[in-house]
Amino acid sequence: MAVAAQSASEISKKKSSSGSTLLRVGRYTAIRLLTLFVTVVIGVYLTILIANMGGYVDTIMKSQITERITQAAAANPTFRSMTPEQRQQTVQTQIANEENRMGLNTPVVIRNFTYLANALTLNLGRAINMTSDSGSKEVRLIILERLPATLLLMGTSELSLFFISLLLALTLSRRYGSFWDKLVILLSPTSTPPAWFYGIFLILLFAAVFKLLPFGGMIDSPPPTNPVDFALNVLKHLILPASALFISQFFLSIYNWRTFFLIYSSEDYVEMAKAKGLPPRDIERRYILRPTLPTIITQFALLLITVWTGAIVTETVFQWPGLGRTFYRAIGFFDTPVIVGLTIIYAYLLAITVFLLDFVYALVDPRVKVGGNQ
Fold first, then answer.
1. What is the rounded distance in angstroms from the CA atom of residue 248 to the CA atom of residue 244?
2. Could you report the per-residue pLDDT of 106-126, keeping only the tens digit for each?
């Protein structure tokens, strides 16, 4: 009887502990989602305010509408037969209709909240000035049309940079103070200039001087009809922008990871493992890589989001038809729907990634508890 009572007590404790864990995780999840959603709302609304320049964009667009309609009216022979009063009235009517069509008669505060509501529900709407290659003004189509080019460029450069620098940094951490270690430290300041700086240099060298590679773009005009030739042609255009992005971060990335691994390599438990005579590979895998896994996963997850956003200036320098160049053109055209559309998707991706990382940490690191104090 005593054993049965003890077993029942243990089962009751386990159920109570399980229920407490579920409650803690559920409460943490709800609070975390609410916090991230509020952060997204604030970030997107600030983006809308900046994109509209506090309403000054309305003044610019109204001036553009007035200038465009006035010039069109002056070139129209029909207007020449009208009296000055009729011409003025007709022009003012057309200007009012165009401003009403573009929603400029609605107060900017109301339009900002309309942009925000549409963005949060992923109702990206229609662009003001920009169009897709098919002629559509749908922001969704404009983004989807430019997405493959950005994924190709950023995926090739950033993913290769991540894995190569990680492997080289781990190798250098074993050879602290060697010639190659000192060389990486010496060359790490070369990662200070941005990618577009290296892009201009590579264009001058390989396109203008040696004439080995194209100046920019993604494909020749007219494009090759053969699929193999088409792929090789895209690869030829990809070399320079991908190299610029890779070189601009290469040595600094190796240096950062190498320093990171060295910090963990000097821990007492690593020295104890070496004293026990464990093989170097086992020490790296169990005592260096495993504790650093949460940081590596975090960097990789954030890298995947960067792959989606593109490189604004670098894509513009190389005339690469990706999302970075689209964002740059949207800023130049004061195309708020496109700017907001690109921003909200990035914000959602970032929020989802940050949310999921908390649970990934709990899986890879037993010291972390979801919703706990650790």
1. 6
2. 888 888 888 899 989 988 888
